[in-house]
Amino acid sequence: MKFLIQRTTSASVEAEEKCIGKINKGYLVLIGINDTDTFETADKMLRKMLNLRIFEDSCGKTNLSLSDVNGGLLLISQFTLYADCRRGNRPGFTNAGSPDHAEKIYDYIIKQAEKEVTVTEQGSFGADMKVTLVNDGPFTILLDSDELFKKQD
């Protein structure tokens, strides 16, 4: 599972020329899911993301979490995070999760996030969307479950 987290002052998503999600200060999170991801992986990734301290405190240090600044979440499914560009110039997406599996995990992530974050907005799974953001910093972090939680021998 991959979360591409972008700290924002504002972000929105449109589908079929209608705004379907919008936040002010918070995180725009592009979520990539593969077939080996589980609800347990989702819980770990969500916990890690929510506890990140990447907002500035009164001294200008990145010391505050999303909840400390009362930030919102805009969660967007993004299978292209699993693009394989090793061969040729056309990316392959065989590492991305099957749509049925990915949608179940994505929906689960949204439900769990809503329990933690007052303003939780979302994109439309599988839709052609237009995403707009003002990246604050810019500040972008990639969380990859394979790197964060791989088992040590």
Describe this structure in words.
- The protein is α/β, with parallel strands linked by helices and 153 residues long.
- It has a single domain, classed as 3-Layer(bba) Sandwich (D-tyrosyl-trna(Tyr) Deacylase, Chain: A).
- 23% of the residues lie in helices and 37% in strands.
- The chain is built from 3 helices and 8 strands, in the order βββαβββαββα.
- The strands form 2 sheets. Strands 1, 2, 3, 6, 7 and 8 form a 6-stranded mixed sheet that branches.
- Strand 1 and strand 2 form a beta hairpin.
- Helix 1 crosses helix 2.
- It is globular and about 45 Å long.
- The mean pLDDT is 95.
Number of helices: 3
CATH topology: D-tyrosyl-trna(Tyr) Deacylase, Chain: A
Q: From the alpha-carbon coordinates, what is the Rg to the nearest angstrom? A: 15 Å
Biggest pleated sheet: 6 strands, mixed
In terms of DSSP E residues, the strand content is 35-45%
By CATH, the architecture is named 3-Layer(bba) Sandwich
Helix content class: 10-25%
Net shape: globular
Q: What gap, in angstroms, lies between the N and C termini? A: 21 Å
**What sequence of helices (H) and strands (E) makes up the elements?**
EEEHEEEHEEH
DSSP strand count: 8
CATH superfamily: D-tyrosyl-tRNA(Tyr) deacylase
> How many domains comprise the coordinates?
1
Could you report the average pLDDT, rounded to the nearest whole number? Answer: 95
- Helical/strand content category: alpha/beta
Extract low-pLDDT stretches.
none
* CATH top level assignment: Alpha Beta
